[in-house]
Amino acid sequence: MNRIGQLLILLSLLLVLSPAALAARIEISSPGQQSIPLALTSFLPAKGSKTMPELALEIRQVLEADLDLSGLFDLIDPKAFLADARRSGLLSSQVDFAEWRLLGAEALVKGSYRVEGDRVQVDVRLFDTLGRRMLTGRRYAGKIKDVRRIAHTFADQVLKELTEESGPFNAKIAFISNRSGRKELYLSDVDGKDVVRLTDHRSIVLNPDFSPIGKELIYTSYKNGEPHLYRKEIYTGKEARISRQKGLNIGGRYRFDGREIALSLSRDGNSELYLIGASGSIHRRLTNSSAIDVDPSWSPDGDQIVFVSNRQGNPHLFIIDTAGGKKIRRLSFRGTYNASPSWSPKGDRILFSRLEGNRFDLFSIRPDGSDEQRLTFGAGSKEHPRWSPDGRFVTYTSDQDGKKAIFVMRADGTGNRRITDAGVDSIHPVWSGPWK
Amino acid sequence: MLMRPNATKTVRTPATSRQPKLGRLVVLSLALHLLIFGLMSGVILPPRKEPPRPVYRVNLVHRPVKDPQAGRPDAAVSRKKPPQKPKTAPKAAIVPKKAPVKKAPVKKAPPATKKAPVVTKKAPAADPGPSYEEILSRIEKTRPKEKPSIDATQSRIDELRNELAALATSELAVEQSTISPVPEAPAGMPQGRGTQAGVSEELWLGEHLKRNWSLSRYQLSRLDLVATVKVVYDAGGNLLDYRFLTPSGNRLFDDSVKKAILKDKKLPVEFAGRMEVDVEFNLKELAER
Amino acid sequence: MKRLTLTRFAVCAAMIVLLASGCAKKPVAEELTTPATQGVTASETTSDADTGIVEESISDSTIAEPEVRGDDKLAITGLERIYFSFDSFVLGPEAKQTLENNALYLKANSSVKVRIEGHCDDRGSDSYNLALGEKRARVAQDYLTSLGVAAERQSIISFGEEMPLDSSGTEAAWSKNRRSEFVAY
Questions:
Q1: Does residue A240 sit in helix, strand or coil?
Q2: Is residue A23 assigned to a domain?
Q3: Average pLDDT over every residue of B126-143
């Protein structure tokens, strides 16, 4: 009797306590549609404007490439577009949202341009077809030759609207190429277009890094016979030699505030990590071993540096505190050759390349050494990964199509695409911050 | 691996008086190792085959009902309502050859009118997609003529079923689309206890909301988000109310959930009565990848 | 009894085979961690040097003999380059032999100064390769110094992977590029 009574109490308690017994409950553990169906229309000439189909096409192509790389969208085939794609009205009251919903589009980009002389004004809007409203709209005015930048800027805006963080597309990629016969420093858009040569050293230029403040780059050059570290102001062209210690002055990387540079010097007869000021004065020596210590990369808070060392045999990744204390922690344990680490701007992951067979592939790992992931597969050697400043994309080199060329991809290893000519070597890419 | 070199060494030592015992031991050991190897590798005993675990997929082809019967969700739904004609209907459905013949004529009339409102995202004008009739005829072709050879046609059937489901969610169409690899099994739900053929209304609604929920992993910087929403529909499938019980706190995530609910304010089904369900939206399947 | 010995023999044989195969594995594993083609490299090096013939013929008379090598400076000075294994700056026996010959030449020509350049193949981090190239130059410098060539007559520089002899990207090309060069001036 007693036991039965207890059971009854327990049962009634259970009934009272479990809300599931009262309201039905279901779980949906992933979206049925994991990319946003987007209709990207061709831009139309505004009323009274000259018609320039090639201009409209260029804007569309830039936008399409950026938005495709973002991975957010499922682009709807323009061949399916109906009447509204040919109407120029940009107000949400003028857009036939039902028509776009019929095509499955949930997001819609429409735009127009007005050409006057060598100037162009571009209006472009992103709509939510379900909510029948404009999510974001922009008007850009500039020279006709600036339309690519205008398109990149709007792509950044679309990402800001749909991910709450601006995209990294209106930016530059600096890299080294020997297309002139010598290794010189170049600058291009993030899609590899608009290439400009920045140096004419006619020797060897290597390993650039963008200053986090101002439009400046540091790099190593053999301009004066020895590998010294230089800084260049991109627009004035002004160049200064900032570190010319005996031996190597290589792998310079700015701290987040631009006030300090980590690099390798071999003034002691062996490569060691140093911190120097922006003008080249030595602040501190970080490492002290007879081994090779190179390729520093700062954590975003500037407290730690990941680097490559063969102090325990093969080249592996190690992390050192920049505040001193000299505590050095080994990060990588697999493989026989781990190189070129790059700490993510959000601090959560470190990219690097590892020798697999006789080719390198890209990997990422958490700074605590957990959750190692391989990002690239297939033919070719992939090296020198660097993050986009928002941490969602990666630029790197691969020789999969011939010579070493610059590639970009998403941080999860998908969406790879080559952005420089595969017929000429291009190496050491680095992604700039927003190019205002 | 460490043991063996040691063993050889002792075998080769000159202490021959103890050899027979040792030799026998080694032989025994070798035999046992071989036996174990044989057992493990399946040379001696064929490896045990685990029957594939049944995977139940709820789809919109089945009519949502309040009180689903037990059975397989992928089983044939008999075209005539089971409660009304329990004796004749099953037999008709069992004969696989006849079924297609019967089906064809019934279908032709309704779809044309029903199609338009139903076309959702998968049938853009780029590729208008096969018409309802085309799909059906393709299904007929893939159907096993004699015995249903499940393996060969299953995947194709699944594909077609998905297309079909996208095209025809109207109740009439639902009733008729009976593409089943297991015609004899009762249609129902694995955990069903009731008497009606079809899926439970809650599961149907869950599947419908999932389809309407679009969100890219690249929109989020984390995948451990959860939002629970109470949704209320009337018997006619009209959305009466929805309320976030626990929002995720992430604007993009919560907006996408809201959109998924608001995408269809009138569901293409009727429920047995007022529907009130707590729906938990999370990203577990994305995080697993 | 006979059968027993027979089985014992069989078991012994099996064990020996196992042992032997176990042993054979080790070098394979080492090959994976150390450069996969150390042997290949060495043979290629000699065959490469054969065209110059300098290597063996070095004696007092060598100086007078301007060689027919493509590389002008090397030919005139009689200084030979040395080669290294992948990710290594260890002097092999052949490299040491070459360095000894180079030392003889430098001692015979006391007015000549030499710049030692360290080079690498183009795989891996360029910074690491610059540091490695420096090590390759330095190890050669140290050896020459130990052989009696004054340190003041030598300078070192690393070019890392930047100046390959052969940029075809093959295993043979890589082994050709992992080297130290001696430039007299």
A1: strand
A2: no
A3: 51
User: Tokens for A184?
Assistant: 């010189």
Contact C87 A383 (CB under 8 A): no
* Model pLDDT for residues A216-234, shown as the tens digit of each residue: 999 999 999 999 999 999 9
Q: Does the beta-carbon distance from A381 to C123 stay under 8 Å?
A: yes
Q: A290-321 pLDDT, tens per residue?
A: 999 999 999 999 999 999 999 998 999 999 99
Domain that holds residue A58: 36-163
* Model confidence at B83: pLDDT above 90: no
Report if residue A335 sits inside a domain.
yes
Residue A123 lies in a domain: yes
| Contact criterion met (CB < 8 Å) for B7 and C15 | yes
Could you tell me the CATH number of the domain that includes residue A281? Answer: 2.120.10.30
Here the tokens at position B164 are 């079909």
| Rounded-to-integer distance, Cα A165 and Cα A411, Å | 15
Chain C contact for A264 (CB, 8 A cutoff)? yes
pLDDT > 70? residue B61? no
Strand partners, B226: B282
Residue A93: inside a domain = yes
A184 and A320 assigned to the same domain: yes
Q: Which residues pair with A308 in a beta bridge?
A: A294, A317
Element of type H or E holding B5:
helix B3-12
Q: Which residues of chain C have a Cβ shorter than 8 Å from any chain B Cβ?
A: 4, 7-8, 11-12, 14-16, 18-19, 22
- Domain boundary among the residues A163, A181, A204 is at A163
Q: B222 vs chain A: nearest CA distance in angstroms? A: 12
Spell out the alpha helix ranges (H) of C34-170.
Answer: 38-50, 54-57, 72-77, 93-108, 126-146
The pair phi, psi for residue A220, each rounded to 5°, is: -100, 140
Nearest Cβ partner for A102 among B119, B230, B276:
B119
Q: What's the mean per-residue pLDDT of chain A? A: 92
Phi first, then psi, for residue B260 (nearest 5°) are -60, -40
- pLDDT of B84 above 60: no
The pLDDT of residue B273: 86
pLDDT of residue B44: 57
Tally the domains of chain A: 2
Given a contact cutoff of 8 angstroms between Cβ atoms, the answer to whether C81 and C183 are in contact is: no
Q: Give the whole-number percent of chain C exceeding pLDDT 90.
A: 43
Same structural domain, A298 and A207: yes
Helix axes B132-142, B98-108, angle to 10 degrees: 180
pLDDT digits (tens, 9 = 90+) for C118-165: 999 988 889 999 999 999 999 999 999 999 999 899 999 999 999 999
The verdict on A158 and A176 lying in the same domain is no
- Judge if A180 and A328 occupy the same domain: yes
Residue holding tokens 């790992």? Answer: A365
Orientation of helix B19-41 relative to helix B3-12, angle to 10°:
150
Q: Do C87 and A399 touch (CB under 8 A)?
A: no
Co-location of A252 and A317 in the same domain = yes
> May I ask the CATH class of domain B213-288?
alpha beta
Domain boundary among A145, A163, A181: A163
Condensed to tens digits (0 to 9), the pLDDT of residues B202-211 reads 888 999 999 9
- Lowest-confidence region among A249-258, A354-363, B186-195, B216-225: B186-195
Q: B175-199 burial string, b = 16+ CB within 10 Å, else e?
A: bbbbbbbebeebbbbeebeeebbbb
Cα A16 to Cα A36: distance, rounded to the nearest angstrom? 42
Mean pLDDT across A392-403 = 95
Same domain? For A109 and A221 the reply is no
- Kindly report the CATH number assigned to the domain that includes residue A103: 3.40.50.10070
> Which chains border A (3 or more CB–CB pairs < 8 Å)?
B, C
| In a shared domain, residues A126 and A240 | no
